[in-house]
Design a protein that fits this description.
- It contains nine helices and seven strands; from the N terminus they run H-H-E-H-E-H-E-E-H-E-H-H-H-E-H-E.
- It is an alpha/beta fold and 232 residues long.
- A seven-stranded mixed beta sheet has the order 3-2-1-4-5-7-6, sandwiched between helices.
- It starts with 12 loop residues before the first helix and ends with a strand.
Length: 232
């Protein structure tokens, strides 16, 4: 992979610990990939070349193999500290897999290299999101998919998240703003391949106030799942 001269928002030690827990894998990562595969449906190509961009510690790789059955899987992350764990996860797969360091806004791959890109909880970590999406579109083949899972600003701006984790706060967006961002970047996003959600773990009251009748209004969307296509 290419050398990187890139500054990014470094995660806290608590954040790095949490991203290795079973809670993260079960309630966030696994759930997101399953939902995205259902949203993509028949658009998913068989024997696809898959890129996991922002792979973190690599827990996603076995889930990707199980649900997408790729012929090739490449995973990248900008943080060198997570790569040894991700490489160990890749070594346990049956499909050909490779892990390396790369800046998501400057990927070391040729144009149209991948059929599917998993972009899980990445966009809200990036300050220049337009540059990120342009690069994802560049390395995606025509007809390819970006499977996107994002936390929205209504969650990121809560006190516990701001205290325990780190994000570029100026870049946070609502679900509708993220959808518009992908469309503005040249992706096709069909309404039937979008899901907005407010899981209990994303709420300060865990949803109990609504259940007990203490809150009359709906909670804002905190999580977004969408399938973005490169049409041309």
């Amino acid at each position: 992979m290419s050398s990187i001269k890139e500054e990014w928002v470094h995660e806290t030690q608590f954040g790095k610990w949490f991203l290795r827990t079973g809670v993260w894998v079960k309630y966030v990562l696994d759930l997101a990939i399953v939902r995205l595969c259902k949203l993509a449906g028949d658009d998913v190509k068989q024997n696809a070349r898959v890129l996991d961009v922002g792979c973190g510690f690599g827990q996603s790789l076995a889930i990707i193999e199980r649900h997408l059955k790729p012929k090739q899987l490449i995973a990248v992350d900008v943080d060198p500290q997570v790569l040894p764990a991700a490489a160990r996860c890749a070594a346990q797969l049956e499909c050909p897999a490779e892990v390396g360091r790369a800046d998501a806004k400057n990927l070391p791959f040729a144009d149209k290299s991948f059929d599917i890109i998993l972009c899980h909880q990445l966009v809200h970590h990036v300050g220049d999101q337009a540059a990120l999406l342009a690069e994802l579109r560049r390395v995606l083949c025509v007809g390819g998919l970006v499977l996107v899972s994002e936390s929205c600003e209504s969650f990121i701006r809560t006190f516990p998240v701001r205290w325990f984790f780190r994000h570029p706060m100026h870049a946070q967006k609502t679900a509708d703003q993220y959808i518009a961002l992908f469309r503005e970047a040249g992706f096709t996003v069909d309404a039937q391949q979008i899901e907005k959600d407010t899981p209990w773990w994303s709420l300060l009251d865990w949803g109990l106030f609504k259940r007990w009748g203490w809150r009359k209004s709906d909670y804002p969307t905190t999580e977004l799942y969408l399938v973005a296509k490169r049409a041309a």
